[in-house]
Description:
Elements: H1 3-11, E1 24-32, E2 35-40, E3 44-49, E4 63-69, E5 72-78, H2 79-83, E6 95-100, E7 104-109, E8 111-119, E9 123-124, E10 138-145, E11 148-154, H3 156-163, H4 165-174, H5 184-190, E12 197-205, E13 208-213, E14 217-222, E15 237-243, E16 246-252, H6 253-256, E17 269-275, E18 278-284, E19 286-294, E20 298-300, E21 314-320, E22 325-330, H7 332-337, H8 339-363, E23 368-376, E24 379-384, E25 388-393, E26 408-414, E27 417-423, H9 424-427, E28 440-446, E29 449-455, E30 457-465, E31 469-471, H10 477-482, E32 485-489, E33 494-498, H11 507-517
Helix pairs in contact: 3-4
Amino acid sequence: MTSETTVEAAQADGGNVSAKTTDTRQYVTFVAGDEVFAVEMAPVQEIIRVPDVVRVPLSPPTLNGLANLRGKVLPIVSLRRALGFAEREADDASRAIVIDIGQPLGFVVDRVASVVGVEASKIEGVEGIRGTVNTDLLTGLIKEIGGHAMVMVLNFEKLIAQEFAQIAAISRSQGGVAAQSLGKKAIADELLVSDAELHLVSFDVAGQEYAIAIEDVQEIVQIPEQIVQVPHAQAHVLGVMTLRNRLLPLVALRRMFGLAEQDANEQSRIVVVAIGGASVGIVVDNVNEVLRVAKRDVEAMPSLLARDGDMADITDICRLDKGQRLVSIISTDNLFRHSAIKEALTTVSSNTESTTESSAAKEGLGDDEQVVVFRLGAEEFGVPIDSVQEIVRVPETLTHVPKAPASVEGVINLRGSVLPVVDLRRRLGLDTIARNDGQRIVVFLIRGVRTGFIVDAVAEVLKVPRSAIEPAPCLSAEQSTLLARMANLEKQKRMLQLIDPSHLLGAGELSSLASLSA
């Protein structure tokens, strides 16, 4: 703990830092509930204001969530809850005491009182207060110190062992398995993508649905607050944006197709595509789904309708929902021949080539992991894009199956196949919500069984630097396998909890779902 933090803690009660002597130990005193406690200074790293947290499913009830502390993920624990006191919202006086006994944890207290020096001989036994608090968690009592008649010395080592017993067990049994990353190849080996299917990202432009092959889509991001205008560029070129220290040219698909203008809104997205070895951001009205389309449902654009020259961008049409839904497939190869794309690339490259190259070398562009980001309430989760078979809308009704596993909301007909659907909120022990238009079904293939999971919303496809991915703190046995990693995007003030889809269902559930799909 730094002297600066020690002074701050002492000043919370207007006190002064006691000088260290050979027979004096320093303690931080604090209030939780109606009681005053102390902890020896040695394990205290620092004292901070109560941070915003990301709530973690399947974690102990005493855990408030995870916070970002200067680039490190820090679990935040409610000391009131751990000690069985009544709940209370944090206020301006509340603080988190960061204690490191094997793993840093932040404990929220009502307020920090002072830093005091105590002679070892002044610490008494706890026999006289066994009815007040669980004395198993105390190492002794300090009387008449820091303006308090009695201060209980809290044994955080025992408290952590009691509240987070699984953490130590998990660490011993796994031996760091949680730190292993889910390589794309390992996940891809599980997927049996048929050569008779196309994998597409679909989106809307002026009420018409279009799609691009998913292998050409690098990521999907939101419209930035600032777009830098490029002088003397064609009207199609919106300008450039900064994407992880690289400059990305932006092109408006509405303008390219000669459609009416529309201001960007919360639904607007940028589909980043690879064109001729470069990246271009294509602005669309909104992104719909990730589709798997049988090639038999795709036909070439009729020659009478195909446009020549700059606008020969649409090569195929796919007919879905028995022909009621038409999706136009855009060829990125043809887009590259479009003058608007060439203009964007040449205008930007003349000014940004050296910047882009240096940024690429600095970031290690090949060292990214591409994830699909979705939301459950206010929290963001991610899954490797290779694990996602498709993303579809939630139908108005789900067919309920008698004697199906409790986790199954129902089944839907997905292009002639029965797809079991699970509410991911229910799977993660979160409160369920009413069905709404923003929800989507994310479809995974888990050990040969196709299963859909309902999420609140699919936000984007994001490239996450592997350097930003770290093992999640081990908080429970189930959480440590299903949510073993986190993407800590410090500059964006975001933390993504990364789900391992292979652990979403147990062996028994998979067997039951396989029988439903048959």
